[in-house]
Structures are given as C-alpha cells and as structure tokens.
Amino acid sequence: MAAPLFRPGIDFAREMDRGDPLARFRDAFAIPKTADGADEIYLCGNSLGLQPKRAAQYVTEELDKWARLGVRGHFDGDFPWMPYHEFLAPAMAAIVGAEDSEVVAMNSLTANLHLMMVSFYRPTAARHKILLEAHAFPSDHFAVESQIRFHGFDPARSMLLLEPRDGEELIRDDDVLDMIGREGDAIALILLPGVQYYTGQVFDMAAIARAGHAKGCVVGYDLAHAAGNIPLALHDWDADFAVWCSYKYLNSGPGSVAGCFVHARHAAARDLPRFRGWWGQDKTTRFAMGTAFHPIEGAEGWQLSNPPILSLAAVRASLDTFRDAGFMGPLRTKSESLTGYLDRLLAEELGKPVRRITPRAPAARGCQLSLGIAGGAGKDVFRGIEEAGVTCDWREPDVIRVAPVPLYNRYEDCFRFVEILKGLLAAS
Ligand SMILES: Cc1ncc(COP(=O)(O)O)c(C=O)c1O
Known about the structure:
Blueprint: H1 10-18, E1 29-30, E2 41-42, E3 51-52, H2 54-69, H3 84-96, E4 103-105, H4 109-120, E5 129-133, H5 138-150, H6 155-158, E6 159-162, H7 173-183, E7 187-193, H8 205-214, E8 218-222, H9 234-237, E9 241-244, E10 259-262, H10 309-324, H11 328-350, E11 354-356, E12 369-373, H12 378-387, E13 390-391, E14 393-395, E15 399-402, H13 411-427
Parallel strand pairs: 2-13, 5-6, 5-7, 7-8, 8-9
Antiparallel strand pairs: 1-3, 4-10, 9-10, 11-12, 12-15, 14-15
Bound molecules: pyridoxal-5'-phosphate.
C-alpha cells in the first residue's frame, strides 16, 4: 500500500503510526516517564538506547543460573557462560554485515580500538600517518595520539586531520578520497566513523576502503553511531577492522559490552602483533593451561578475558529484538521515513531559525538530525525542550542532536517535538 501523502498536523503522524509495520516493537521497550506519568518523547538513542523489556528477564536468568549452579553455570543450562559470547555472533554479524567468525562482543569501544591498533597500526619511517577527522570523537583522537606516541612518532607529523572546507560543516566524500589519493603512500591507517557523532553524516565506507587499499593503507571504522542505525556491509566493503559500542542504537545498556570486527582475511594472520589473553587462546587447548599461545581464528582470537555475562545477557536481549524486527532492512526503511518526516516538519514548520546540519539525502544520514539554533540561543532552547518532557542531547559547542529510532519511536514523537520547539522559538 502506498504511504499517505505528507500533511502537516498530528493526524498525519497518527496515520503513519497506525500504518507502521514495526509499531508493535515500541511495547518491547521501557519508555521513561515524565513527572506526571506520561511517556517521555525520547529522541536520544544516539546516546543511550532504551531498555528492551526482555533485558531484565535475560539478566535475571543468568543471576538465577549463578544462584542455582555456581561455577557449573559455565557449562550447564540453556546458555552456558563458556561460549556465551558465541550465541551473540550471528545477530551481531547480521547487523554489521559480517561473517559470524568476523565479529566478537568484548570489552568497550576504546579498549577495542586500542587492541585493533596494536595489530593494524604498523608505522614505518615512510608510512606512519593515521588519517582521522579533525573533529573525531575525543576518545578516538586520544587513542590515535597515544598509539602514535607509543610507536615513537610525533602526533604533529603523524596525525592527518580531515576537516570540512571553510564555511562548511560536513566533510565532502570527494575530499576524503582526494586526501587518500594525495597522502596515501604515507598513511598507515585510515580511521573514520561510519556515522559522524556531531553532524550525523554517513561516510562512504565502501569507497574509502577501496581507495585506502589501493594505496596500501589499512582501513578501520568506528561504528559507535552506525551499528544498529544504518545498514553495514563490513565484509563486502573489505574493511580491515571495526569497533562499536552497544549502548546507543544497540540498546544493550549503559557501558555494555562492545563489538569488534576483524576481516576474515586476517583471521589466521599469525604475523600480526597482538596483545594476548587466555580468552583468545584456542578453545581446545585453553584449559590445558600451557603457555604457548595459539589464537582462535577470527575475531575471537583478539579476546583477552572471560566476558561479563550479565552485560552480555542484555546485549543478547537487544539482539533478539533486532532479530524479531527482521534486522536492518525493515528498520532502515522506517528510519528513512521517520527521520525524513522530522526533517520535513522542521523545514516547513520552523524554517530558518533551525539550521539542519545533517545531510538532506537519506543515504547520507542515519536516524540522527543535528540542529543548530540561530542567535546563540541553542542551550536555552535545549533546556526548554528537556523541561517539556523531551529527551535529546546537547553537544558542545553548538548542537542539539535528535534521533528518532525506528524500534521505539513514533511519528507522533517527531510531531510533538517540533511543536514544542516551535513554541520555544516563538517565545524566545
Ligand atoms: C564516536 C565515538 N567513539 C568513541 C566513543 C567512546 O566509547 P567508549 O566510552 O564506549 O569507549 C563514543 C562514545 O560515545 C563515540 O560516540
């Protein structure tokens, strides 16, 4: 059935919600409440995704298992702890476009980024640079800077920083490729985001990997804002590695276990340096307690420690919800429509006072829209939005990020958010 034609007004939003094939998933999430008990307008999945209701059940099951079985929980019961992370791999792989053996849930994002750079940043006198954005998320900047220093190089010479052109806020795809073309012979590692945290811009990961490899560079991605947000095809794009967190669009809880991708090409690469731990040791010999290290082939070989099961239980709960929704295909269809609706409402209802920083083209953005408020009133407007029962977030120096998420947001949420913003702007 054709989607109804856009009309301003809440009736259209409600009609869209009634026709939404994913609408029932909202009920699978705990929606935070305002002081008067109403559902908040929660548009903050870019920062912390909402709790799938089944997370409590899955975590409780593991607590019960621990109480009933003690150490035997590693081997007994429905989801024994020894291989627990393996139960997560197929769904995680489906979300990032990978083979099961290319992904593993472990550690946190920045820790994984360091582990990946230990293996994949191999600077030489001639090729020592890391290409990243000038406005990369600070943790990525710090990780890169410290790895460069660790190898005895100078960040001032080895960090190659991509910036938008003067007067622009987004980095042009062509400028990324030109930089790789110009500097590629000196670049050891390209480290870029899938979705930029501040602007919401999607990078052309396939083209970057192609251009980088043509120049002999290693290509890795930070998918903090991309995993569970936009469709990814890490294996086919031939990325060397990627890292992501699970607490944003992957709804796995604050600080929950992160993800890591290592391309199958590197699965058995014994020549790569890596930091070692017993959980990366070949499973058939791990408990022989020998000290000769034989890494598991694939991403699992980069694990260090036995993982926090209570946290992985929440990740599993989230991944099961993604599976029930049909993974990224249906979610992306709704997301383009939902964010497109919000973008159009902002343009038609508010116009110039709200600067939409995120790209217009649906393919060049995910759920998030980044908004600048004219006249330096951004922070006051943001406070007003929060007081009106909306959760979104503020990023210094000057942006309000709003992210309608297809698993639990409604068109009505977008409509009401724009009405609130309109009221605040009229009053300011
Ligand atoms: C783009 C990006 N990279 C890295 C991080 C750091 O993540 P963590 O604290 O999980 O290591 C974040 C956190 O929000 C992020 O948005």
